Amino acid sequence: MPKGKKKGKYEHKRTEQAYSSDEDAGIDMTIDNCSEISGQSDLKSNHEDAENDVQEKLEEKVLELIEALNARANAARAAALVSLQGALQRRYLAGLLANHRATLADHIARMLRRGRDGERRAAANVAPLLALQIGDEGTEEFMKEVRPALFAACTDKSASLETRTDCCSSLAVLCYLLEDDLTEIIEILRMYETIFSGSYLKGDSSVKVSGAAVEEGVWHAAALDGWALLFSLAEAAHAAAILRSHPPSPARLLQLLEACNLEVRMAAGGALAVAHERSAEDEVWSGSEEPLLARLTQLARDPHKYRAKRDRKLQRATFRDILKYFEEDEVPELSVRVGSESVVCERWGSRAAYAALAGALGGGLRALAPHCAPLRHALALPAAPPLAPPPTRQDKLQRHLQNNAACKARTLARNKSRDKRSAALSL
Fold it and tell me: Is the whole-model pTM more than 0.90?
């Protein structure tokens, strides 16, 4: 040691004998409990535990929201429904909601009948998600409670236009997915026609440009989209009979292409395409095709500068596809990814169905598609394979004790390896 340098407190004399490798030094690098396989299993177990924790927290939150539907304040009930809608869009919770079918149906029906606009809109928006989440056994009872309430709310003049619009869209999706009675569907088609008949031409064939016609355009468009969606359920023979015996006729639908509201014009174009697709070979269309093609050509090349640039662009893009269908009998194909599967829309009816389902379910479309048979049938997806029964879940205390034991075993094994290295280094 150099002169004047004191020996440090933690400086120790080392052996002069060098070793070439850990094996020569006698260090055992194998750790029984920390192998690669056990590490992967631990990561998988941790991931499953995290998923279980998220699921349990979400279920607890949903139960709290169901209890909050009994709140006295209207705003609190509406907020609970909005939060419930967000939760149902994230996960499939049929096992949890099966025990609350009657309660949920009663709450939704009561809010649609007696609630204020905020409650009514929230109840209408969450109704399709609940109908798919409560399970097949409770669907019929839910429809008996909720469908008449939605039907009445669609034409309730005391409700706001936004509320009536949401009720029209939700009723159409519910009946498209879960209604099998053709009589009920025809009755709803008639109700929709009474709504969008407000956009027909006047008796002198002039366009309605009053304030009411402009303000109610979104409501009329929602009713027209609902009519087209439910009409696509009819067989070809039934579709032609409906057009002959029940309004609207193709001539009446053609009048809606003259409406002053953009949404009504585009909805009318889609409805005409769906109606023609279902009954193209019937005589009901005789005499209507030439004026229809002329009007579609005008809308596809609309040069009017008094309309907004965005509206003109959207209108031309929409009616170019519709005009191509009527001229060349060609439907633009639409392919959309839903989770790990692809939904291919090759008909106007399937395009209308996807647009309505995506608008009503939102993110829940991806969460519910692997589980709900009516939704898979509506999207033309193959039947889902039967799901394996979920493994038995341990409670939180058991998982906590198991994780503590595994952590202790890993710590002991790591310390054992460190002791071997320290002993080798001290030689």
Answer: no
